[in-house]
Design a protein that fits this description.
Elements lengths: L2 H17 L4 H18 L11 H9 L6 H14 L2 H13 L5 H16 L3 H18 L4 H12 L9 H21 L9 H29 L13 H27 L5 H18 L5 H34 L2 H10 L4 H16 L5 H18 L4 H14 L8 H9 L6 H24 L2 H10 L1
Helix pairs in contact: 1-2, 1-13, 2-13, 3-13, 4-12, 4-13, 5-6, 5-7, 5-11, 6-7, 6-8, 6-10, 6-11, 7-8, 7-18, 8-10, 8-19, 9-10, 9-16, 9-17, 10-17, 10-19, 10-20, 11-12, 13-16, 14-16, 15-16, 16-17, 17-19
Length: about 450
Amino acid sequence: MSSEILSIIMFITTLALLLFGFPVAFTLAGTALLFGFLGDFLEIFNFRMMGFFPQRIFGTMINEPLVAVPLFIFMGIMLEKTKIAAGLLQSIGELFGSTKGGLGIGVVIVGMLLAASTGIVGATVVTMGMLSLPAMMKAGYDQKIATGTICAAGTLGQIIPPSIVLVLLANILQGANEEAAMLKGDLAPEPVTAIDLFAGALLPGLMLVGMFILLIYIYARIYPNSCPPVKTHRSRKEIYFEAFKSIFPPLILILLVLGSILFGVATPTESASVGAVGAAIIAFTKGELNFKNLKDVSLSTVKLSSFVFVILIGASMFSLVFRGFGGDSMIERFLSNLPGGLYGALFIVMAAIFILGFFLDYIEIIFVIVPLVGPVLIANGADPLWLGILISLNLQTSFLTPPFGFSLFFLRGVASREIKTKNIYRGVMPFIGVQIIAIFIVGTFPEIATWLPDRMF
């Protein structure tokens, strides 16, 4: 048995175990160890290569940009405790609710603001599902457009910076960029940082928000009875004042965090610490900064951060064994020989990530798939920044695609029994279509992702 055949069997076995629901980190590490022993027994893999694994773990431990991950998680969970979403949904819902589809547009705008301040998809979907879904049903909204809007708006935290996905992607793409440079003989490649991805994701993220709003607007014009206006007894002056009061705290936090990154005042790690402190200050001003909340936020942060980093360690072991079998060289030859050159290979990779998103979590795809295909695509001419934005847009759809889209499960968990599951699934379909269109637009016009970073940096 050749080493490349064994690498294919190893990859398929890992995917199968993940689909059966085995813990991700232990599946990746366990499969790597099992096939490492098997390869050593068949004399096609030197198990002594595992001696390099502690160095990989140490490299992860001293990777400063990854420190931003727990800080951004802390910021998001702390803001969730302040119930800031409730005020935003009520005030912005009233601000836009007087027009057809206005309440849905308001939900998208709230999702955008929460994405730029919290960035946690689960918390955003659950909160908006609990608060805005009953209001939309009471206003006479169709179940499909209401649930689809909430699920789609909740996923904006994956693309709108500061995003944990972009931080993780930046770390993986930097390694892929260095490998690609070695393939091309370039000893000093341009670095790929989270700052670059934050700047690059800003315009595509806002474009996607605009496309969601346009979809709701068109839907409301075609089916006016499905998105009726909402009546309010408050004056416009009161509505504007409440909207300003609700938007001001998260807006200041967004400007502090994102502005300090984009204008070079602070690194992502430093700005994440500013965001964590800022979220705590907002919680204090709202009377929510007590020992119980601080304990809950800290425990949740530790659990989520541990989840991410344990998967990273397992994926590192998987990558070590897979490369030891020559799997990376096999993928390089396959993608390089596809018809259509770079765009042919990119189409296959994007289609594969989209399909895997039906079954796998975005973290699994980032840590397992991107390190394997990234170096080849970059070596064939793909701008790593552009590639990162395309992948992040693609990963965003994994939260919406049945059967295992997390946003669907989050909303199903908080929605009343009157909301049919089939309507949730049908409701997200137009938004998935919009996201696919957005991927094609950014793929066709790379300047959408690269223009702002080029101008700023």
